[in-house]
Amino acid sequence: MNKSHLLHLIKDIYQDLLPSLQIESVNPRDPIKVKYLPQPWGLLGKGNYAAVVDHPDYPDCVVKIYAPGRPGYEEEVEVYRCLGSHPAFSECLYAADGFLVLKRLDGTTLYDCMHLGLPIPQQVIQDIDEALDYARSRGLHPHDVHGRNVMMHQGKGLVVDISDFLHQEACSKWNDLKKAYYWLYRPVLRPLRLRVPYSALNMLRKSYRLATSLKTFCCQLVLKLSYFKYLKQ
Q: InterPro entries this protein is in (predicted)?
């Protein structure tokens, strides 16, 4: 996108989009709610903290807007600054006032691939692995990488959401997804070409989140009990 086109987009954001847009985050664990989006802007997706919209006059860009009161905006801007340019990631073209203008990445999330029954080649998983290694080489810490945050486009893997890449705590979501891919998807689901209903996918997502929370709780409990046992010695 040339500079003039980008300036026109920014003008439309301030004049047409932001004054009318109504979004809110009711629960930080659930996707935000978009109560009103002015035409001709379209909703591409929504996460727990932000919504992603586009405009038909600017097909090469998307706009990511954070819900009021939700954190992460400054961190995401910093992540894009650190990443620079890489084919598996988007690029930040402009950022201000709680929104980012990003280079558009086309594709289908792995979550939607499961729903649509689209085959996911191994190259997609390998591309995402390489992209995450690149991010680590830039001093970042890939975090919260799951089926809704990665995409497939023409047999290539893309990473869509990098907003949590400054978080240094361990995150096993991508490794867990890879295990499911190699142990369950490739030998069982892919040959059957099953289309998984969104209701089932959402149930799996919530079950995984609960299991992860229980695992974390149990680990913390064991550490506390070990600490108390040590004090009594």
A: Kinase-like_dom_sf (IPR011009), Meiotic_Drive_Suppr_Kinase (IPR052396)
